[in-house]
Protein 1
Amino acid sequence: MELSNDEIRRYSRHLILPEVGMAGQKKLKGASVLCIGTGGLGSPISMYLAAAGIGRIGLVDFDVVDFSNLQRQIAHGTEDVDRSKVDSATETINSINPNVIVDKHETAFTSENAMGLVADYDIVVDGTDNFPTRYLTNDACVLLGKPNVYGSIFRFDGQASVFAPGLGGPCYRCLYPEPPPPGMVPSCAEGGVLGVLPGIVGCIQATEIIKLALGEGDSLVGRLLIFNALEMKFREVKLRRDPKCPLCGDNPTVKELIDYNQFCGIPDQPEEPDENPDEVDVQEMKRALDNPDLGIAVVDVREADEFEIAKVEGTTLVPLSQIEQRFTELDANQTIYLHCKAGMRSLKALGFLRKQGFKYLKSVKGGITAWSEEIDPNVPKY
């Protein structure tokens, strides 16, 4: 695989590195990488891989660009809002390096298509943000003998590693044999994320991919790199393959892909979900606020910082993080509507208060996001 004169000019700073040179750059051109997710992590990963001259990049994503993505998902711009993320990222990659072949897979990464997608690439990089897809990515890579370059981010903290039993290291299941209970770990939408954090972690992942393709340096196989942006500290944890791992251990029991939502305790969503008797819609919340004589209290269980961003007049703030200490401030005999950002934390608050003897509770479906969309667009969405 030869390099054109244009490519030699483009990659000149690589070519003068003894660890890369012409031979290494040709390896990069001949390499293929499947990037699962084109968001916070997938953006810097795919952009730097393209700049480095990775020959073929596959992008897997089914989502569209949202305004809230722009603070960190740098492959997309303001003009890309509501566009397919795969289309937007492909356009960005092509503008960086038109020599790169981009395969667009505008689909969810599922147990049905994972093996076919992974099999077609040399290296897989995990840029996802949920546990079912992380386990699915891991299992497909182990079963097919592909390195899985892992990264995760939350608030100010990031992690990165390379899971590759074929290279003598552990897999993701060796580190996390069991997923956390559903809802135990907040999403970035609930807990937030520093915008530059995925750039740092994604660049580490891209570095590991380039090293793997070159066959140079010490990879993160067998090591978990942990980064704290607030303290600007890196630390490292040694990882070992678990001989009892059900996937990569001495006597594996997982030999094919499974239902990962079920494995992570996430119930399948019916096409037309039944009405939840514990929920009311934002129209009912408005009726309660407009008619104080109904005697219905509306309690906001978001955090104080979120309350400052957007709030509905007439609501009382009791953050979910404080509800165990402050629930006695509420009247157990009063009807209470609980609301949050989207309706998940309010259901958690409802479950807790019910155990404390509160009988007349409802969670507001869709939370303040639905309020902004259906009742008052002047309330900001975040």
Protein 2
Amino acid sequence: MLKIDGTYGEGGGQIIRTAIALAAITGEEVDIENIRANRPNPGLSAQHLHAVKAVKKLSGGRTEGLELRSTRLKFAPGALNGFESEIDIGTAGSITLLLQCLIPVALFADSETKVRIRGGTDVKWSPPMDFHTEVFLKAVREMGCDVHLDLKRRGYYPKGDGLVEAKITPSHQLNGIVLVESERIGEGVVKGISHSCGLPAHVAERQAKAAESVLNAAGYDSELKTEIDENGKRTTGCGITLWKGYKSGSALGERGKRAERVGEEAAGNIIKELESASTVDVYLADQLIPYIALANGKSEMRVREMTKHIETNMYVTKKFLDVEFEIEKKSGFVIVYKV
């Protein structure tokens, strides 16, 4: 049984998601200790529980310690069988983080997997849903993955109640991805969605206008859409996600934070990525590590900096797979590749 130290690197839930996914794919039993030990609320949270339960359902596996706030989890996987089901994370547990664990496993199942997932679509400390649909999916499809995500409704903290439908068709064989050419500064159009629910329409509009102003001042053309639902009975919140190629920037609204600041923050985040010599943003880079390791052939990408999340995913991935990542630091960016 492989042992994983839950305090390694960024020491968060990513260790659980990657370890459980790769355990299911490789058939290796895993024992994860000290789960989120250095976090304010150590142990498994609701979204971790549901992610592991979904993989357990896919693999018919056995678990020990699969309970809220548990700091140790053992998982013994079985054969991978696709399924059709509904998952309710509850409140605003992150749907995108659950998908990080579920998607790679479903790609190696014996049949298609269809799930309707309820929870948070745009919440703190997790990728926004538009990043997943517009940036992440673009990359994994390039690698031969057949994954479809349909955002039915958004869910914000604290109520959640967002809804996403996912359909994952088994691929079994992934292709390497080589991303070496960074786009020229100022070239192309930055796209995005500014969204709100339960708030006046001008909130999303002001977010978009502020983002456009910052982008235009930096020399980028933009095509931003607004998505507005003024009925706040179900959930209330706002945010904006911007993307161009394999790079993104996003920001969420919160009480006391002006809409203009939200838009400016998102624009600043993507400009920081666009003006570097990287080919992918730091968030996509860490999510691609397990896919690159599982893929046939060479993969290469350039990132603005080596983050704890990237290092952590490399650490966990190398526990399960006979793979080596090589890192080469150059001025302004880091090259990460598998040979």
